[in-house]
Design a protein that fits this description.
single chain, mainly alpha, 0% strand
Length: 93
């Protein structure tokens, strides 16, 4: 494991990169967003098509852990917003 200083620098770099991506996406057109989402979906599908069973279970477990952590720390307003979005997705599916 990396020393604390290197981990902190890595987290800071990752945060700045996420902020840069978010700013870039805020300014993109709907056509560019659709193209990016399609490319992301294709890349994800290709990666999942060749992952092993162990990799799939590991990915699913990590996703479940991330979701559980996020839900454990959300406040009432965030929970209501998430539940409303889930209901909307279900209604339009």
């Amino acid at each position: 494991m990396a020393p604390p200083r290197k981990r902190k620098c890595a987290r800071s770099t990752q945060r700045r990169e996420r902020e840069r991506i978010a700013a870039s996406r805020a300014n993109e057109s709907s056509e560019l967003r659709q193209q990016r989402q399609l490319a992301d979906s294709e890349r994800t599908a290709a990666a999942r098509a060749c992952e092993t069973e162990d990799e799939r279970y590991s990915r699913q477990a990590a996703n479940a852990q991330t979701t559980a952590t996020a839900r454990a720390s959300e406040n009432t307003e965030e929970r209501c917003r998430r539940q409303a979005a889930d209901a909307q997705r279900t209604a339009t599916a």
